[in-house]
Amino acid sequence: MPSGGSPSSVRPAVVGPGAEEAVAEAPARRPARSSPRRSRRGSRAERLAPFVLVAPAVLIIVALRLWPLALGVNFSFTGDGDRNGTSVGLDNYLTLFGDPLFRTALRNVGLLVLLLPVAVAIPGLLATFIYLRVPGHRIYRGVYFFPAVLSPVIVGAIFNLLLAYDGPVNAVLGVVGLGPVDWLGDPDVAIFAVVGVHVWATFGMALVVFLAGFSTLDRSLLDAARVDGASLPQTVWHVIVPGLTRTIQFVFVTTMIGMLTSMFGLLYVMTNGGPEASTYLPEYYIWVQQGQFNQPALASAASTALFLIMLVVGLAQVAVLRRAGREG
């Protein structure tokens, strides 16, 4: 052994017999394990991360949507005028459903529900034609969407001129011998005229949603239907409708919400609730009670009733469409 060297620094130059077996039998070094405490912290952070990311959006919804909604519902149980701020229980709701104007508005809501399939079928069929690339489909896409960017006031003013008793629409009807129609002055016709104008002005957005839904449709199914000799109605009913079930549900709900909450501008410009209050809808009734009669509590009760109507109608539509999709 050299002087100054430590025994531990000297390695044997000769390996004796059996040393290789000893080395082979030595236990293999295991990888270092993370401590259980650290792994628990990591899993807890992973579980909390989605909630942290969603928290700002939830706070905004609660502050700007749910909290004002709760205040409005609470305000609907208070009085107006001399009883301002005092609790009146269900008096506002009893007054609401006893008012003939509000009952007319509810009857018109039922009419909108009946007309809803037509309002959804129109953009759906037009989107189908555009998706199948009919001649001029690129131009139609822009033309159909253009009314959606117009103000309801502008649309109402335009159709006031077109649907006037001595307007161009009645002039065309007179040429073909159908006679003039009092589109905005006949109580039995006015609500259909306003709804028709609303559908014309807003179906462009539903058209865009349908086109987005078509992008998820399997093109091979359409090719197979074409090879099998399926007609266009058969292709629509057996291929397109089942493939766009979720899109149709979304368009149904959003179109109904739009009919119940976005027709005030047209009603105000075209009929002002008339003739004979035949075009009243809940949102117009709310504005009349708040803006003309200064009854905010009664208007809050009407707003709460409108919210419940939209909730019930929307859930019923989704349930019916899901059942129809399963049966299909």
TrEMBL record:
Name under which the protein is recorded: Multiple sugar transport system permease protein
PROSITE patterns, sorted: ABC_TM1
One Gene Ontology biological process: transmembrane transport
CDD domains named among the record's database cross-references: TM_PBP2 (cd06261)
Compositional bias ranges of the Basic residues kind: 30-41
Family the UniProt entry places it in: Belongs to the binding-protein-dependent transport system permease family.
The organism of origin for this protein: Saccharothrix texasensis
UniProt keyword annotation of Acyltransferase present: no
Lineage, uppermost ranks: Bacteria, Bacillati, Actinomycetota, Actinomycetes, Pseudonocardiales
